[in-house]
Amino acid sequence: MKRWIVLALACLAISPVWSAAPVRIGSKAFTESVILGEVARLAARQAGVAAEHKRELGGTSILWSALQHGDIDAYPEYTGTITHELLKNLAPDADIPTLRAALKPLGIGITDSLGFNDTYAIGMREDRAAQLGISRISDLLPHPDLRLGLSNEFMDRSDGWPGLRQRYGLPQTQVRGLDHALSYRALASNAVDAIDLYSTDAEIPYYHLRTLDDDRHYFPHYDAIFLYRLSLEQSSPEFVKALQALSGRIGEDAMRQMNAMVKLHGEKETVVAAAFLGVQPDSDGASFWSRLLQRTVEHLRLVLVSLIAAVLLAVPLGVFAARSRRLGQIVMALTGVLQTIPSLAMFVFMIPLFGIGTWPAVAALFLYSLLPIVRNTYTGLVGIPPDLRESAAALGLPRGVRLRRVELPMALRSILAGVKTAAVINVGTATLGALIGAGGYGQPIVTGIRLDDIGLILEGAIPAALMALAVQGLFEGIEHWLTPRGMRLEARQ
Amino acid sequence: MQNASNAPTEAAFEVNRVSKRYGSIVALDDVSLSFPRGSTTALIGSSGSGKSTLLRLLLGLEWPDRGEVKVDGHVLEKAQVLALRRRTGYVIQDGGLFPHLTALGNLGLLPYHLGWSRDRIRSRAEELAALTDLAQDVLERYPAELSGGQRQRVALMRGLMLNPDALLLDEPLGALDPIVRHELQDQLKSIFDQLGKTVIVVTHDVAEAAWLADRLVLMRNGKVVQDGRLEDLQQRPVDPFVTHFVQAQRTLQRPSA
């Protein structure tokens, strides 16, 4: 019993600590959005408003729902995305006053254009395009064998690939989904012939790319703006004023320049944003070790909170499944179905319920942890020899005592093995939490993929792998410590 | 079992016309038997004759499809089962010891739940160790570290911890080698004589049954074939099967050429 108390206290010691939140700015998981998020944060600081930047929160749907639920207060968006993705009953070329009127009933405000249009474009290597004589999108028509590498978001959204293909009648069949940050690499190494890109991407001159002319005017305007919660006009009018003051200040060149500083010259987003605003960047006091410590705490918190909650539910479920086999099969089938949900989808499903940040990630990891623990509890209990089960009954021990003093101790090894499996899986899966603002080791991985920075990816991947090994070792120790000696002995014949 | 004041009954256990089947297999078929208080009875018969099932009915580990089980003259009900089990020791073939507990842990499991102190548990365990001729240091060992004979001694001690009124033993010596078995037969006999409890022991060994008990109940296919003393079975068999079963036990001799 004492051992269990020690274990529980150890877990509590690493449980979450919350603090009051300042204005929260979100950004999507690509560089321009992160830079704009930093610009907004520094502009807020300049105006004397405490603000924090939750960076790289995955894609549009995550940011939009987080804004509506009040998990974030503002984030940079593009007008074309609003008309095509978010408010579907608007004309695709609706102007900003129209958008403003349409967003108002949702409690969302919109600034005027920041000063640049970041529209989609199709790009090819200059040499390849010249060789094939392609300069407009309609020039692609006679080349059905060209291989397209399109960002996953572009592939899926209605103003992306499906519409483009229809408008031009494009014949290409070799279309692959790629992460946008990787697609330039793919193009440069001739793995694909054409990719989608943003007109402010820094890589266009760097990789000597030709952007194809949109001769049938398919791509709409993507004027950069900030969306914010209208309630800020009461709670933090200075912040809204600071956001609005950014309108018209960022031209296409300025944006491409800032993108290049980050993506090609390895500057930090905050340094670039500060230089643009003409303010001092925050002293970036966080050393490698303190960053690592912070991420470790975040990561451990995700894994432990979800794991403890899962143990508390899954062990009773496993006991129930072992008692009532038929209902038990249903319980196990349900937890099995949970296991088949792809992890990124699971994280996104949790956002409407729990917002963004730690809790939706904990909830997703919790659901993933159920199956191994329920199954191993069930297996452990069912595997107890019937004569021992009956011996306990014949002694005159009540059911609860039999469970606690005989059956669970005998099944303990199997249960702990299930918890270990769940924990190790959680350590890996938790890295995806970074995409919904949960932090942890996934953060440098997401940033590293975006910036094509292997070092940064390893900064997250190596500690995650080490933590998985440590968890494995820890549980083997716990198993050894908690398993009664008699259960480890081979029976004497 | 202290209901001598009203409706005094001599029977500790009684079954009236009980039947029990598992699917298509008939385990007990209209069996009536009475076990007087303080008597020692051996249930004998081949495997599958229903003797173990009968024992399990007496503890409420199984319930009859038809007929009634009476304990101390009262029909057994589910609500009384825990109390009944606590005043009845039960020992099975492999001992049924819990591998995660030491011998002492096994002995103390129920008493501890009932609020006994550790000291009281230990002194009772030492008392019983003396009775069953078990070395004291064996109490600290785990079941996996015990010999077959030691395991059965500990199992018997576990059945005796609360000083029960009755002992039910299901092939208690079935898994032991001949020397240990012989030694334990002697000990069991002397323990039964010392304690004077109601004892029902299931075995398929006629010699063992006759050594341990005065009364032999021979069962076959869920029915009682004959109920009596060894001499009755030998000299006044009711059925050729009785003779066949009793003589099937080989005495020490060379096969003749």
From TrEMBL, chain A:
It is found in: Cell membrane. Keywords: Membrane, Signal, Transmembrane, Transmembrane helix, Transport. The keyword Magnesium does not apply. The keyword Transmembrane applies. It is a multi-pass membrane protein. GO terms for molecular function: transmembrane transporter activity. Residues 1-20 form the signal peptide. GO terms for cellular component: ATP-binding cassette (ABC) transporter complex. Pfam families: BPD_transp_1 (PF00528), OpuAC (PF04069). InterPro entries: ABC_Gly_betaine_transp_sub-bd, ABC_transp_perm/SBD, MetI-like, MetI-like_sf, PBP2_ProX-like. The chain crosses the membrane at residues 300-322, 343-371, 422-442, 454-475. One of its GO terms (biological process) is glycine betaine transport. Residues 296-475 form the ABC transmembrane type-1 domain. In the C-terminal section; belongs to the OsmX family. PANTHER family: GLYCINE BETAINE/L-PROLINE TRANSPORT SYSTEM PERMEASE PROTEIN PROW, OSMOPROTECTANT IMPORT PERMEASE PROTEIN OSMW. This is ABC transporter permease subunit. The lineage of its organism: Bacteria, Pseudomonadati, Pseudomonadota, Gammaproteobacteria, Lysobacterales.
UniProtKB/TrEMBL annotation, chain B:
PROSITE patterns: ABC_TRANSPORTER_2 (PS50893). Transmembrane segments: none annotated. It comes from the Bacteria. GO terms for molecular function: ATP binding; ATP hydrolysis activity. One of its GO terms (biological process) is quaternary ammonium group transport. Keywords: ATP-binding, Nucleotide-binding, Transport. InterPro entries: AAA+_ATPase, ABC_transporter-like_ATP-bd, P-loop_NTPase. The keyword ATP-binding applies. Residues 13-246 form the ABC transporter domain. PANTHER family: OSMOPROTECTANT IMPORT ATP-BINDING PROTEIN OSMV. Belongs to the ABC transporter superfamily. This is ATP-binding cassette domain-containing protein. It comes from Dyella dinghuensis.
